[in-house]
């Protein structure tokens, strides 16, 4: 059972999604706008936040930005129009884990919440034996708990960012196309564009550069995709 927050100015969406998640055993709180939700989140964060983008008083993008300032690992799912690609890109740049396009299947949303909760739970598990840790030069990945470390410093990634980094690191030096990274980062067909993948890679680089300004291991292979280039020994 988890605490799930639904933030949407459409009452029918709030009620329908809340009912479906409650049937799964979750505790659900609903909010009609971002400002109301932000007031509540400052006292207690949910386990998952489902945010509409277009809302009065405080929109979903600004709410996501504020939430990411409080927690880099809180799972966030955006709900947006199929045609609003710019909003989806901005949401991903701000750190959303996933998004659904309206109109969406409630069963699909419940399934994605389930996946994000399962992955988040792994972070809190006791460390696994050393052999489960993937090491490539100064990089360490713990696939069981979705944890990343660079030169001994922890890097907080969203679930999708972790999955894409893991896909790149699995075969160091090999090029991964944007289509391949889409399959690795998303288990569903959700109108993922090449710009979405570029946005994730941009955020990955930025997070590593924050702790190591010289980080340059994720290379762009123009016309093809990306690759993780291990350090030369």
Keywords:
single chain; 233 residues; alpha/beta; Rossmann fold; Arc Repressor Mutant, subunit A; 2 domains; 4-stranded antiparallel β-sheet; 8 helices; 12 strands
Helices and strands, with pairings:
Layout: E1 3-7, H1 11-23, E2 27-31, H2 34-41, E3 48-52, H3 60-70, E4 76-81, H4 85-94, E5 98-102, H5 106-123, E6 134-136, E7 139-142, E8 147-150, E9 153-155, H6 159-170, E10 176-177, H7 178-185, H8 194-211, E11 218-221, E12 225-228
Parallel strand pairs: 1-2, 1-3, 3-4, 4-5
Antiparallel strand pairs: 6-7, 7-8, 8-9, 10-12, 11-12
Helix pairs in contact: 1-5, 2-3, 3-4, 4-8, 6-7, 6-8
Describe, in plain words, how this protein is organized in 3D:
The mean pLDDT is 86. The chain has 8 helices and 12 strands. The chain has 233 residues and is an alpha/beta fold. It has a 5-stranded parallel sheet with strand order 2-1-3-4-5, with helices on both faces. It has a 4-stranded antiparallel sheet with strand order 6-7-8-9, covered by helices on one side. Strands 10-12-11 form a 3-stranded antiparallel sheet. It has 2 domains: 3-123, Rossmann fold, CATH 3.40.50.2300; 130-228, Arc Repressor Mutant, subunit A. The N and C termini lie far apart (47 Å). It is 42% helix and 21% strand. Helix 1 (11-23) crosses helix 5, helix 2 (34-41) packs parallel to helix 3 and helix 6 (159-170) packs across helix 8 (194-211).
């Amino acid at each position: 059972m988890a605490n799930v927050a639904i933030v949407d100015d459409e009452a029918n969406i709030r009620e329908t999604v809340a009912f479906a998640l409650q049937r799964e055993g979750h505790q659900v709180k609903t909010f009609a706008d971002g400002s109301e939700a932000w007031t509540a989140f400052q006292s207690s964060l949910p386990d998952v936040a489902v945010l509409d983008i277009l809302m009065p008083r405080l929109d979903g993008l600004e709410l996501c930005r504020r939430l990411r300032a409080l927690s880099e690992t809180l799972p966030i799912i955006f709900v947006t129009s199929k045609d609003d690609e710019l909003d989806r890109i901005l949401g991903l740049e701000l750190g959303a884990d996933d998004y659904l396009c309206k109109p969406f299947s409630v069963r699909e949303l419940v399934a994605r919440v389930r996946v994000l909760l399962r992955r988040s739970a792994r972070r809190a598990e006791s460390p696994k034996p050393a052999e489960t840790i993937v090491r490539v030069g100064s990089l360490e990945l713990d696939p069981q708990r979705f944890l990343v470390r660079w030169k001994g410093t922890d890097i907080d990634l969203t679930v999708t960012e972790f999955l894409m980094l893991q896909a790149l690191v699995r075969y160091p030096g090999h090029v991964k196309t944007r289509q391949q990274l889409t399959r690795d980062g998303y288990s569903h067909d959700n109108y993922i564009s090449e710009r979405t993948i570029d946005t994730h890679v941009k955020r990955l680089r930025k997070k590593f550069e924050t702790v190591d300004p010289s980080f340059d291991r994720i290379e762009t292979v123009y016309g093809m995709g990306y690759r993780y280039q291990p350090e030369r020994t």
